[in-house]
Specification:
This protein has 357 residues and is of the alpha/beta class. The protein has a single domain (14-287), classed as Rossmann fold (3-Layer(aba) Sandwich), CATH 3.40.50. Helices cover 32% and strands 12% of the residues. α7 (165-181) links the parallel β6 (154-159) and β7 (189-195). The longest helix has 17 residues, at 165-181. It binds adenosine-5'-triphosphate and magnesium ion. Magnesium ion (MG) binds next to α1.
Length: 357
């Protein structure tokens, strides 16, 4: 965990839950990569894996078998403090991991009066150590999600702009409304929609995005929505690199830092910071060929070299033209859990043909 400097005033982080009852819409991918982008920009970030599937933990290279205490112990065991559970996964980036046993917490906590506040209570003494706390919710509305919503100030809704997206979104707003009305968290607000796996050339997608934009315009002042609530831009383009990165235990910035998915998440993170920090100046080196400005969809990044180094100036090579090899970040889980990067299929093939030759 980051140590606050002595005499530094306690700062309150933005605590954001990424929530959608629908499965497979991009909650975990967005939590990991927005968190990693914020951390690269110098923000102190903690990611909390509230999903017994443990996908966020795996995405960051934390194997459920090898991690020690997890969200489960944090929720169930009064004597387990946050420090015992937090894993430092990258510079500025902490993770509270989970694994499959977290599913049992739903039942084990069922009769506890304080069951929805357990997580927030454990975090309360440590709030000043972070600028952002992001909670990856499971695709359901049980005790785990309610713990996340009770601690969060804001909700982002990752979704795909598909048929029935508006219905799903209205249902989700009802849920957040209930959470407020029932006193679980009277201050909770929806801050925005994150469009994931976006294919902007589909007419249906454009219509759905138009409906969502219209909804936020028409509902300004709705107490469930924060004043800056909107459909966030850029939309995150569908990009195979985003789907490949988790199997290497890497964020998109470790795996393919200049692919379209990385550019989109980096720009999105800058916009998220700017929502609450008007003085924030984005780094011009983070180049922004986003969906807003690109006249045609960016082609998938070719696999072939030449590949710039992670720190190469963006202007030297267009992001779509090349990207570095995925590589293990030596800082991953430094001193805690080491992660062996797996070989990609093309690397396996190359190695096999080398051996056989
Ligand atoms: P669950 O509800 O099961 O927790 P989720 O909402 O967290 O799912 P993810 O796991 O983030 O969704 O994403 C679902 C799948 O889509 C994953 O395989 C992920 O790698 C892939 N994916 C996410 N975003 C993109 C994208 N922009 N382009 C391509 N694939 C993506
Ligand atoms: Mg998930």
């Amino acid at each position: 965990m980051s140590q606050p400097t002595q005499d530094a005033p306690a700062r309150h982080p933005r605590v954001i839950a990424l929530l959608n009852q629908k499965g497979g819409v991009g909650k975990t991918t967005s939590t990991v990569n927005i968190g990693a982008a914020l951390a690269e920009m110098g923000k102190r970030v903690c990611l909390i894996d509230m999903d017994p599937q443990g996908h966020l933990s795996l995405h960051l290279g934390l194997d459920g078998e090898s991690v020690g205490d997890t969200v489960y112990e944090l929720l169930l065991e009064p004597d387990v403090p946050l420090q015992q559970v937090v894993v430092k996964v990258r510079p500025n980036l902490d993770c509270v991991p989970s694994r499959v046993d977290l599913a049992a917490a739903e039942i084990e906590l069922a009769n506890d009066a304080d069951r929805l506040r357990r997580l927030g209570d454990k975090f309360a003494p440590h709030m000043g150590e972070y600028d952002y706390i992001l909670l990856d919710c499971p695709p359901s509305l049980g005790t785990l999600t309610l713990n996340a919503l009770s601690m969060a100030q804001e909700v982002y809704v990752p979704m795909q702009a598909h048929f029935l997206a508006m219905q799903g979104f209205s249902k989700l707003l009802e849920t957040v409304g209930e959470v407020c009305r029932n006193g679980v968290n009277i201050d909770l607000k929806v801050s925005g929609v994150i469009l994931c796996m976006h294919e902007k050339h589909s007419t249906l997608v454009r219509e759905v995005v138009g409906e969502l934009d219209g909804f936020f315009e028409e509902n300004r002042g709705n107490p469930i929505l924060s004043p800056h609530a909107r459909v966030l831009r850029p939309a995150i383009r569908k990009n195979i690199k985003l789907a490949e990165a988790p199997s290497f235990g890497q964020t998109i910035f470790d795996y393919a830092p200049w692919c379209p998915g990385a550019l989109d998440y980096r720009t999105l993170a800058e916009r998220i910071i700017a929502q609450n920090d008007p003085d924030f100046v984005p780094d011009p080196a983070s180049s922004k060929p986003s969906t807003e400005v690109a006249p045609v969809p960016a082609p998938e990044v070719p696999e072939a070299p030449p590949r710039p180094k992670k720190t190469a100036p963006v202007s030297d090579a267009p992001p779509e033209a090349a990207e570095p090899e995925p590589q293990a970040d030596p800082s991953v889980a430094a001193g805690t859990i080491s992660v062996e990067p797996r070989m990609r299929p093309d690397e396996v093939a190359a190695s096999e043909s080398k051996n056989s030759g």
